[in-house]
Specification:
About 35% of the residues lie in helices and about 25% in strands. The protein is of the alpha+beta class.
C-alpha cells in the first residue's frame, strides 16, 4: 500500500495520482532498466536526496524535484518548491556542507516551484530569476513567494568558487520565463519541466495550459544547439518518473537521462503538432481531428494515453486557428 505525506501540496498529490496510473504502462514500455531499479527509492519515502556528482544534488519532495549545487564558496538552491519542502531541503543541505545558501534560483514563476523560499531569505540568500518571471510574480504576488533580488534577460551565471550554475532563457516554452540551467563542472542540464528523464514523455497536463506552443519547437532546437556546443551529455528533470523495482513494487526512477531526450521530446511535439496542422489544413473541425490521427504512433512515449492525446489536439487546434 502506498501512503501519501499529508503535508504535500494538493497539486503534487494530484500529479502523484496521475503518475501512479501511468506506472503499469511505464513497465510495458521498458522504462525500468537494471541500474535504475537499484538506484530508485520506494514510493513511501516523502523526501530523498540524490547525489549527481561534482557538488550537484537532486532533492525530491513527493513527486517534485528541486536541485542544489554546493561549491567551496557557498550553495545555490534551484526552486524551493513550498514551505514544507524548503525546510526539509535546508536540513538535507546542512547534512552535506556547512557552507551557507547564498542564492536561490527560480526556474519559472509558477507557485509550485517558487514558493517557500523565505527560510533561505532569512539566512541571507539572494533570489535570482529571469526578468519575465519577476514581472509575473510582481503582477500576481503570493505571501510565501520571495521576490527576486537579481534578474537577467538572456543568461546569468552564479560562481561558487569551484562550481558554477548557469541560467539560460531560450524564449517562451513552458510559460513565458522558463529557464534552463546547467551545473558546471558536472555538465548536467536541469529542467524543472518539459523534459522528464529517464524517457521522453507526454505532458502531465493534457490541456497544455502552460505551454507556449507557437515557439516550442524553436525552444527545443535552441536548447539542442546549446547543449551540443557546450558538450553537455546529461539532463535532470524536476518531476519524478515512476517505474517498477526488481520486487515488482512501484519506485521512483533516477532523475537523470541522456541529452538525447531533448531531441526525442522535440520529435514528439513536431509529430503531434504536424498531425494536427495537416488535419486543420484539410478543413477538419476540432471535434473530428482526434479521430483522424493515429495515436498509436506515440505509444513509445512515457505516459502514453490516447484520451490525453485527444485532449491535446483540441488545444493545438486553437494554435492554428488563432495563432497561440
Amino acid at each position: 500500500m502506498i501512503h501519501l505525506d499529508a503535508g504535500l501540496p494538493a497539486r503534487a498529490v494530484a500529479r502523484f495520482g496521475v503518475l501512479i496510473g501511468f506506472a503499469a504502462m511505464l513497465v510495458c514500455q521498458s522504462m525500468v532498466i537494471a541500474h535504475a531499479q537499484s538506484a530508485a527509492a520506494p514510493l513511501t519515502s516523502s523526501y530523498e536526496t540524490e547525489d549527481l556528482g561534482d557538488g550537484l544534488y537532486a532533492f525530491r519532495a513527493g513527486v517534485e524535484r528541486s536541485f542544489f549545487l554546493v561549491g567551496e564558496e557557498g550553495v545555490v538552491v534551484i526552486d524551493p518548491l513550498n514551505v514544507e519542502a524548503a525546510q526539509a531541503l535546508r536540513a538535507e543541505i546542512t547534512k552535506r556542507t556547512d557552507q551557507p545558501v547564498k542564492y536561490v534560483v527560480y526556474s519559472n514563476s509558477f507557485f509550485d516551484r517558487s514558493s517557500g523560499g523565505q527560510i533561505f531569505k532569512d539566512d541571507g540568500a539572494q533570489f535570482v530569476a529571469q526578468d519575465k518571471c519577476a514581472e509575473n510574480l510582481l503582477e500576481t504576488p503570493r505571501a510565501d513567494v520571495v521576490m527576486p533580488d537579481i534578474t537577467f534577460i538572456d543568461s546569468h551565471a552564479i560562481a561558487l568558487g569551484d562550481r558554477t550554475l548557469e541560467m539560460h532563457y531560450f524564449g517562451p516554452s513552458f510559460g513565458n520565463c522558463f529557464t534552463v540551467l546547467v551545473a558546471r563542472p558536472a555538465n548536467i542540464m536541469l529542467f524543472s519541466n518539459i523534459v522528464s528523464p529517464p524517457k521522453a514523455s507526454l505532458p502531465a497536463d493534457p490541456t497544455l495550459a502552460n505551454y507556449s506552443l507557437y515557439s516550442l519547437i524553436g525552444f527545443f532546437k535552441a536548447v539542442e544547439a546549446f547543449a551540443a556546443k557546450g558538450e553537455i551529455e546529461t539532463v535532470a528533470g524536476g518531476y519524478a518518473t515512476i517505474g517498477r523495482g526488481e520486487d515488482g513494487n512501484p519506485v521512483f526512477l533516477p532523475s537523470t537521462g541522456p541529452i538525447s531526450l531533448v531531441g526525442e521530446q522535440r520529435v514528439f511535439w513536431e509529430t503531434l503538432l504536424g498531425a494536427v496542422k495537416a488535419a486543420y489544413d484539410q478543413g477538419m473541425p476540432a471535434r473530428v481531428i482526434p479521430k483522424r490521427i493515429d495515436m498509436s504512433q506515440f505509444s513509445e512515449y512515457a505516459g502514453y494515453d490516447e484520451r490525453s492525446l485527444q485532449i491535446m489536439t483540441r488545444r493545438i487546434y486553437s494554435l492554428y486557428r488563432i495563432g497561440r
